[in-house]
Amino acid sequence: MVRDYSAFLPGSAPVRRDPTALERLGWGPAFASQIDANALTATPPVRVVAVHRSGLQLAGDGIEEAIPPGPEATVGDWLLLDPARPRSSRVLQRKSLIKRRAPGTGREVQLIAANIDTVFVVTSCNQDFNVARLERYGALAFEAGIDPVIVLTKADLTDDTAPYVEEARKVSDRVPVVALDARGEEPMKALADWCKPGQTVAFLGSSGFGKSDPHQRASRRAGRRHSGHP
Ligand SMILES: Nc1nc2c(ncn2[C@@H]2O[C@H](COP(=O)(O)OP(=O)(O)OP(=O)(O)O)[C@@H](O)[C@H]2O)c(=O)[nH]1
Ligand SMILES: [Mg+2]
Protein backbone atom coordinates (compact mmCIF):
# COMPACT_ATOMS: atom_id res chain seq x y z
CA MET A 1 0.00 0.00 0.00
CA VAL A 2 1.32 3.42 -0.94
CA ARG A 3 0.86 5.97 1.80
CA ASP A 4 0.38 9.67 1.22
CA TYR A 5 3.13 11.44 3.14
CA SER A 6 2.79 14.73 1.28
CA ALA A 7 1.50 16.57 4.34
CA PHE A 8 4.85 16.02 6.04
CA LEU A 9 7.01 17.46 3.32
CA PRO A 10 8.50 20.94 3.62
CA GLY A 11 6.41 23.61 1.98
CA SER A 12 3.06 21.96 2.66
CA ALA A 13 0.55 24.51 3.87
CA PRO A 14 -0.29 24.10 7.55
CA VAL A 15 -3.83 22.76 7.85
CA ARG A 16 -5.95 22.43 10.93
CA ARG A 17 -6.70 18.75 11.21
CA ASP A 18 -6.35 15.85 13.57
CA PRO A 19 -2.74 14.76 14.04
CA THR A 20 -1.76 11.83 11.86
CA ALA A 21 -0.43 8.57 13.24
CA LEU A 22 3.13 9.76 12.65
CA GLU A 23 2.51 13.13 14.25
CA ARG A 24 1.08 11.44 17.32
CA LEU A 25 4.37 9.56 17.52
CA GLY A 26 6.26 12.88 17.46
CA TRP A 27 6.89 13.36 13.73
CA GLY A 28 7.22 16.94 12.54
CA PRO A 29 9.02 19.41 10.24
CA ALA A 30 12.43 18.89 11.88
CA PHE A 31 12.40 15.31 10.54
CA ALA A 32 10.37 15.84 7.37
CA SER A 33 12.90 18.39 6.15
CA GLN A 34 15.60 15.69 6.14
CA ILE A 35 14.02 13.52 3.47
CA ASP A 36 12.34 13.64 0.09
CA ALA A 37 9.07 12.11 -1.07
CA ASN A 38 10.70 9.08 -2.70
CA ALA A 39 12.56 8.19 0.47
CA LEU A 40 9.34 8.52 2.45
CA THR A 41 7.59 5.90 0.36
CA ALA A 42 10.53 3.53 -0.09
CA THR A 43 11.76 3.76 3.49
CA PRO A 44 8.89 4.74 5.80
CA PRO A 45 9.69 6.68 8.97
CA VAL A 46 9.43 4.69 12.19
CA ARG A 47 10.18 5.64 15.76
CA VAL A 48 12.22 3.51 18.13
CA VAL A 49 9.86 2.93 21.06
CA ALA A 50 12.01 0.44 22.97
CA VAL A 51 15.53 -0.90 22.88
CA HIS A 52 16.17 -4.49 23.87
CA ARG A 53 19.26 -6.61 23.75
CA SER A 54 17.60 -8.48 20.89
CA GLY A 55 16.99 -5.35 18.87
CA LEU A 56 14.82 -2.29 18.36
CA GLN A 57 11.04 -2.12 18.70
CA LEU A 58 9.62 0.23 16.05
CA ALA A 59 6.31 2.03 15.52
CA GLY A 60 5.14 3.96 12.48
CA ASP A 61 2.03 4.54 10.40
CA GLY A 62 0.53 1.03 10.46
CA ILE A 63 3.94 -0.42 11.36
CA GLU A 64 4.72 -2.28 14.58
CA GLU A 65 7.80 -4.43 14.32
CA ALA A 66 11.08 -5.40 15.85
CA ILE A 67 14.38 -5.39 14.01
CA PRO A 68 17.72 -6.86 15.05
CA PRO A 69 20.36 -4.58 16.56
CA GLY A 70 22.28 -2.66 13.95
CA PRO A 71 21.42 0.98 13.50
CA GLU A 72 23.23 3.21 16.03
CA ALA A 73 19.92 4.24 17.53
CA THR A 74 18.34 4.73 20.91
CA VAL A 75 14.81 5.02 22.22
CA GLY A 76 13.06 8.01 20.64
CA ASP A 77 15.10 7.94 17.43
CA TRP A 78 13.43 8.21 14.02
CA LEU A 79 14.63 5.72 11.42
CA LEU A 80 13.89 5.44 7.73
CA LEU A 81 13.04 1.76 7.74
CA ASP A 82 14.74 -0.11 4.95
CA PRO A 83 12.42 -3.12 4.59
CA ALA A 84 15.00 -5.18 2.71
CA ARG A 85 17.90 -4.40 5.04
CA PRO A 86 16.47 -3.13 8.34
CA ARG A 87 19.93 -3.06 9.94
CA SER A 88 20.94 -0.43 7.40
CA SER A 89 18.01 1.87 8.14
CA ARG A 90 19.06 5.50 8.27
CA VAL A 91 18.82 7.33 11.60
CA LEU A 92 17.44 10.85 11.14
CA GLN A 93 19.23 13.77 12.71
CA ARG A 94 18.02 14.29 16.27
CA LYS A 95 16.35 17.29 17.86
CA SER A 96 17.84 16.34 21.21
CA LEU A 97 19.93 13.56 22.68
CA ILE A 98 20.57 12.41 26.24
CA LYS A 99 23.82 10.48 26.45
CA ARG A 100 26.44 9.56 28.98
CA ARG A 101 29.87 8.02 29.09
CA ALA A 102 29.39 4.28 29.28
CA PRO A 103 30.29 3.14 32.80
CA GLY A 104 33.60 1.33 33.08
CA THR A 105 34.73 2.08 29.57
CA GLY A 106 37.07 4.72 28.30
CA ARG A 107 35.47 7.16 25.96
CA GLU A 108 32.58 5.10 24.72
CA VAL A 109 29.29 6.98 24.78
CA GLN A 110 25.99 5.40 25.72
CA LEU A 111 22.90 6.86 24.08
CA ILE A 112 20.05 7.16 26.58
CA ALA A 113 17.14 8.79 24.72
CA ALA A 114 16.60 10.90 21.61
CA ASN A 115 14.13 13.52 20.42
CA ILE A 116 12.65 14.30 23.81
CA ASP A 117 10.86 17.65 23.95
CA THR A 118 10.55 18.10 27.71
CA VAL A 119 12.34 16.56 30.65
CA PHE A 120 10.45 16.60 33.93
CA VAL A 121 13.02 16.72 36.70
CA VAL A 122 11.19 15.14 39.59
CA THR A 123 11.87 15.50 43.29
CA SER A 124 9.64 15.53 46.35
CA CYS A 125 8.66 18.14 48.94
CA ASN A 126 10.27 16.35 51.89
CA GLN A 127 13.66 15.51 53.35
CA ASP A 128 14.75 14.07 49.99
CA PHE A 129 14.59 17.51 48.36
CA ASN A 130 18.07 18.38 47.12
CA VAL A 131 18.73 21.46 45.05
CA ALA A 132 22.15 20.25 43.86
CA ARG A 133 20.50 17.22 42.33
CA LEU A 134 17.96 19.44 40.57
CA GLU A 135 20.82 21.50 39.16
CA ARG A 136 22.59 18.38 37.90
CA TYR A 137 19.52 17.04 36.15
CA GLY A 138 18.67 20.49 34.80
CA ALA A 139 22.18 20.81 33.36
CA LEU A 140 21.89 17.35 31.84
CA ALA A 141 18.67 18.41 30.07
CA PHE A 142 20.11 21.68 28.77
CA GLU A 143 23.22 19.87 27.50
CA ALA A 144 20.97 17.45 25.66
CA GLY A 145 19.09 20.32 24.01
CA ILE A 146 15.90 19.79 26.01
CA ASP A 147 13.83 22.21 28.09
CA PRO A 148 13.56 20.98 31.68
CA VAL A 149 10.59 21.52 33.99
CA ILE A 150 11.00 20.91 37.73
CA VAL A 151 8.18 18.88 39.26
CA LEU A 152 7.94 18.82 43.05
CA THR A 153 5.80 15.87 44.07
CA LYS A 154 4.22 14.98 47.42
CA ALA A 155 2.94 18.55 47.81
CA ASP A 156 0.06 17.02 49.79
CA LEU A 157 2.47 15.81 52.48
CA THR A 158 3.68 19.28 53.49
CA ASP A 159 1.84 22.26 54.97
CA ASP A 160 3.69 24.72 52.83
CA THR A 161 5.26 24.07 49.45
CA ALA A 162 6.50 27.67 49.07
CA PRO A 163 10.01 27.13 50.54
CA TYR A 164 10.58 24.16 48.20
CA VAL A 165 9.31 26.08 45.20
CA GLU A 166 11.46 29.06 46.10
CA GLU A 167 14.60 26.89 46.39
CA ALA A 168 13.84 25.11 43.12
CA ARG A 169 13.35 28.44 41.32
CA LYS A 170 16.99 29.26 42.10
CA VAL A 171 18.10 26.56 39.66
CA SER A 172 17.33 28.85 36.70
CA ASP A 173 14.77 31.48 35.81
CA ARG A 174 14.33 29.58 32.52
CA VAL A 175 13.00 26.50 34.29
CA PRO A 176 9.35 26.39 35.34
CA VAL A 177 8.62 24.86 38.73
CA VAL A 178 5.39 22.97 39.47
CA ALA A 179 4.40 21.54 42.87
CA LEU A 180 1.72 18.86 42.93
CA ASP A 181 0.29 15.66 44.33
CA ALA A 182 1.46 13.14 41.74
CA ARG A 183 -1.15 10.53 42.58
CA GLY A 184 -4.42 12.08 41.41
CA GLU A 185 -5.55 13.96 38.37
CA GLU A 186 -3.51 17.05 39.25
CA PRO A 187 -0.49 16.21 37.04
CA MET A 188 -2.76 16.04 34.01
CA LYS A 189 -3.78 19.66 34.48
CA ALA A 190 -0.51 21.05 35.79
CA LEU A 191 1.65 19.38 33.12
CA ALA A 192 -0.83 19.63 30.23
CA ASP A 193 1.08 22.36 28.40
CA TRP A 194 4.04 20.05 27.92
CA CYS A 195 2.07 16.85 27.23
CA LYS A 196 0.17 17.70 24.07
CA PRO A 197 -0.22 15.03 21.41
CA GLY A 198 3.03 14.47 19.57
CA GLN A 199 5.15 15.76 22.44
CA THR A 200 7.71 13.39 23.90
CA VAL A 201 8.46 13.76 27.57
CA ALA A 202 10.78 12.00 29.99
CA PHE A 203 10.85 11.88 33.78
CA LEU A 204 14.20 12.09 35.55
CA GLY A 205 14.69 11.63 39.26
CA SER A 206 15.65 9.23 42.00
CA SER A 207 13.63 6.20 42.97
CA GLY A 208 10.42 6.79 44.92
CA PHE A 209 10.00 10.45 43.98
CA GLY A 210 6.73 9.91 42.11
CA LYS A 211 7.79 9.66 38.47
CA SER A 212 5.58 6.72 37.57
CA ASP A 213 2.30 8.16 38.84
CA PRO A 214 2.02 11.14 36.46
CA HIS A 215 3.83 9.22 33.74
CA GLN A 216 1.27 6.45 33.67
CA ARG A 217 -1.67 8.81 33.81
CA ALA A 218 -0.24 10.96 31.03
CA SER A 219 0.31 7.90 28.83
CA ARG A 220 -3.21 6.68 29.36
CA ARG A 221 -4.77 10.08 28.84
CA ALA A 222 -2.90 10.89 25.68
CA GLY A 223 -3.15 7.34 24.37
CA ARG A 224 0.32 7.53 22.93
CA ARG A 225 3.69 6.00 23.38
CA HIS A 226 6.36 7.26 25.65
CA SER A 227 10.04 6.76 25.53
CA GLY A 228 10.21 5.20 28.95
CA HIS A 229 11.97 6.91 31.79
CA PRO A 230 15.58 6.23 32.63
N1 LIG B 1 1.28 11.28 49.09
C1 LIG B 1 1.91 11.20 47.91
N2 LIG B 1 2.50 10.05 47.53
C2 LIG B 1 3.14 10.01 46.35
C3 LIG B 1 3.23 11.14 45.49
N3 LIG B 1 3.95 10.79 44.40
C4 LIG B 1 4.28 9.49 44.54
N4 LIG B 1 3.79 9.02 45.71
C5 LIG B 1 3.95 7.66 46.22
O1 LIG B 1 5.33 7.39 46.37
C6 LIG B 1 5.63 6.05 45.97
C7 LIG B 1 6.69 6.06 44.88
O2 LIG B 1 6.15 6.70 43.73
P1 LIG B 1 6.55 6.22 42.25
O3 LIG B 1 5.81 7.07 41.27
O4 LIG B 1 6.41 4.74 42.12
O5 LIG B 1 8.11 6.59 42.28
P2 LIG B 1 9.16 6.52 41.07
O6 LIG B 1 9.81 7.85 41.03
O7 LIG B 1 8.49 6.06 39.83
O8 LIG B 1 10.21 5.46 41.58
P3 LIG B 1 11.10 4.38 40.70
O9 LIG B 1 10.14 3.72 39.73
O10 LIG B 1 11.64 3.46 41.73
O11 LIG B 1 12.17 5.18 40.02
C8 LIG B 1 4.30 5.44 45.53
O12 LIG B 1 3.77 4.71 46.60
C9 LIG B 1 3.44 6.64 45.18
O13 LIG B 1 2.05 6.40 45.33
C10 LIG B 1 2.59 12.35 45.92
O14 LIG B 1 2.62 13.40 45.25
N5 LIG B 1 1.96 12.32 47.13
MG1 LIG C 1 8.69 4.30 38.66
Automatic annotation (TrEMBL):
Pfam families: RsgA_GTPase. The lineage of its organism: Bacteria, Pseudomonadati, Pseudomonadota, Alphaproteobacteria, Rhodobacterales. Residues 217-230 have a biased composition (Basic residues). Residues 205-230 are annotated as: Disordered. InterPro entries: P-loop_NTPase (IPR027417), Ribosome_biogen_GTPase_RsgA (IPR004881), RsgA_GTPase_dom (IPR010914). Residues 91-212 form the EngC GTPase domain. GO terms for molecular function: GTP binding; GTPase activity. GO terms for biological process: ribosome biogenesis. Keywords: Ribosome biogenesis. SUPFAM superfamilies: P-loop containing nucleoside triphosphate hydrolases. It comes from Donghicola eburneus. This is EngC GTPase domain-containing protein.
